[in-house]
Amino acid sequence: MAISEINVRNQFRGKIKEIIFGPVVSEVDVETQHGIVTSVITSRSIQDLDLKVGSEVIALVKSTEVSIAKIGS
């Protein structure tokens, strides 16, 4: 999967450093060259995206929301 266009200007490429799993939502810490970005997303999304510690992702920041997009396979 490649992201060619998106309307979010604040994008930070990094690798997942830690995942703190919860029954419904989980915290994902992404280590970027600018520091750690933390996202709270559903635990189901973590499974659906097959996110793991070490996965390369892009943290998409808009206002107070941080989304995660997985890079590659």
Automatic annotation (TrEMBL):
Pfam families: TOBE. GO terms for biological process: molybdate ion transport. Keywords: Molybdenum. This is Transporter. Residues 5-70 form the Mop domain. InterPro entries: Mo/tungstate-bd_C_term_dom, Mop_domain, Transp-assoc_OB_typ1. The keyword Methyltransferase does not apply. It comes from Duganella guangzhouensis. The keyword Chaperone does not apply.
